[in-house]
Amino acid sequence: MKICVPTETNEGASARVFGHFGSAPYFTIYNTQDNTVEVIDNANQHHAHGMCQPLAALTGKKIDAVVTGGMGARAVQMLNEGGVKVYRAIPGTVADIAGQFTKGGLEELTVHNACAHHGCH
Fold it and tell me: How many helices (H) and strands (E) does the chain have?
């Protein structure tokens, strides 16, 4: 399973989770089957509020889930419509989050419990 974690840096599995999906500098994709990582620059990190295009940066990556500190309801809805589930991250690194994800210990984000503004956690 491939999970995407918005990160502060491009340090792979040791990168720390970024607080909000759309404005993250990087997206780190962690493959739980073979423990590999891929880092993508987020060229859309300075978008206007409500204009996040979450699937654009991830086109062709076949992501199964996004694990994030926060995400707006519209972005959650867009990802869900694309077949991608969204989960709330625990503080820590991509490796920490991947470990918790595989144990089933993360809360799913929905349009009902998503962020109403940038900067929420």
Answer: 2, 6
